[in-house]
Amino acid sequence: MSDEPKKTAGQPEGTELEYVFDKVPDSARKSIGSILVILTGYTISLSCFVTGATVGFRMPFRDAVLACAVGNFMLIVVATFLGMIACDTGLSTSVLSRKSLGARSSGILSLLLVISSVNWIAVNADTFSNLIISNFSWWPVPVGITSVLVVALWAQSAIRGVKGLEFVSWLGVPCALLLTVVCAVAIGNRVGYGTVFQYTPSEEPLSFAAASTSFVGAWVFGCIVSPDVCRYAKKKSHVALGAPIAVAIGLFGLQVIGIMTAQATGENGFVPATAALGLGILVFVCAIFCVWTTQDNNIYTSSLALQNVLKDTPLEGKVKHSTLAVITAVAAAAFAAVGATKYLLPVVQTLSVLLPPIPALIIAEYYFIKKSKDGKAINWVTILAWAAGTIVGYICLQKAFLVPAIVSMAVTFVLYIVLSKALDSTLNKDI
Questions:
Q1: Average pLDDT of the chain, as a whole number
Q2: CA 112, CA 375: separation in Å to the nearest integer?
Q3: 272 and which of 46, 132, 267, 295 could share a cystine (Cβ 3.0–4.6 Å)?
Q4: Amino acid 347: pLDDT
Q5: Helix or strand (DSSP H, E) at 294
């Protein structure tokens, strides 16, 4: 079967549906500068600071940074390979997943992507709203309602598609760099780096497995959906350069600053920690665009994933991108209103077990199996490999063995190739 994407009769193309089921044409491809700034803008987020601060509060500095480095190295590998596949095919994550999962069972992944999007939008909205309350005592609106308002703001660029993402990213990336530098300088001036380097957690330390899994879980979702942006790249070399730089700046850089901020102040949350450093107002100003660049991407990705869920329904995946973006924003606002941040680590660790098998499946299918399953409703070979990888990842997490997400991905990758070679001719003989 051909790997060329199928077009639905009468389906509009271009920005109305954001090429959701079609290969992005050459005329719509972006320069390396645009791809780099969108990817970097996507990675920078308050949740990076929050995750770093949460882990840093419960680990010595060296251990926390090492766990952060290991987790982010995996993310670079995943984002780069998936991004290059997307550049070559011009397809989004949801459509690429149909080639390994099958047309209908890819809806399972799409639903996970929607849930992940809603979770991260809500966590960031909750964090940002608390930042507003902590810095402006006169602010009259409760945290829950404030969260709803900020989600509505982020949706404004998301509903305008990739052009809206690019515009906001050009504003957000410089703000993230400024925020990182200012926090580092403030820590050195106010408490000294020695306090950070010699930090000893007052609570029971996190295991290396749990910490590295938290860092992977903090952006494994972003890696998996990197094709949604990278499909607009003109060359695979642009992705190979852009993805590592984006992760190094937006993830590793911000997470390490989160670690240092928590350890310098002894505060368990990023908002009170930056306030203790006297950076509340500056953090707030920079955070406006830092958080916006990520959450509009999440809304955008959720819209594409929802479209894939609707593909095999009477709606046939023809709902306008802007409509689905609004639906995502409403769901995220509701979750944020009930305090999404308190569920951060359990949700992150759960996603870090469920999601890592997905890039393994897509990469294995593209490079090794090369037999698209988008003409089949369910690829049971994929389901078996995915289930096995998830179970192994969960066991590793419970036993604090190595880096669970990496083990899960490796097991899924090998199993999918082996099972496909052994069972494709039987289970997928009609393809």
A1: 85
A2: 22
A3: 267
A4: 67
A5: helix 280-310
Question: CA-CA distances (angstroms) from residue 122 to 154, 224, 355, 365?
Answer: 11, 19, 19, 33
> Does the pLDDT value for residue 222 go beyond 50?
yes
Contact (CB, 8 A) for 408 and 356:
yes
Task: Spell out the residues 6+ positions from residue 391 whose beta carbon is closer than 8 angstroms to its own.
Answer: none
Q: What's at 53, amino acid-wise?
A: A
The closest of 185, 169, 138, 22 to 89, measured between CA atoms, is: 22
Contacts (Cβ under 8 Å, ≥6 apart) of 79:
39, 222, 223, 226, 243, 246, 247
Tokens, residue 293: 């660049």
The whole-angstrom separation of Cα 54 and Cα 146 is: 23
**Which residues are registered as beta bridge partners of 233?**
30
Do residues 431 and 376 make contact, with C-beta atoms less than 8 angstroms apart? yes
Helix 93-101 and helix 280-310, axial crossing angle in degrees, nearest 10: 50
Contact between 72 and 215 under an 8 Å Cβ cutoff? The reply is yes
Q: How far is CA 368 from CA 203, 267, 326, 360, 372, in A?
A: 46, 48, 38, 11, 11
Output the six-digit token pair for 27: 């005329």
In percent, the amount of the chain with pLDDT more than 70 equals 92
Q: What's the pLDDT score for residue 271?
A: 72
How many C-beta neighbours within 10 Å does residue 155 have?
Answer: 24
CA 311 – CA 240 distance, rounded (Å) = 31
| End-to-end CA separation in angstroms for the chain | 7
Q: Quick check: 211 and 69 in contact, CB under 8 A?
A: no
What single letter denotes the amino acid at residue 135? N
Q: Which two tokens stand for residue 3?
A: 């790997």
**More confident position, 338 or 245:** 245
Give the pLDDT confidence of 63-73 residue by residue, as tens digits. 999 999 998 99
Q: Which helix (H) or strand (E) segment is 265 a member of?
A: helix 254-265
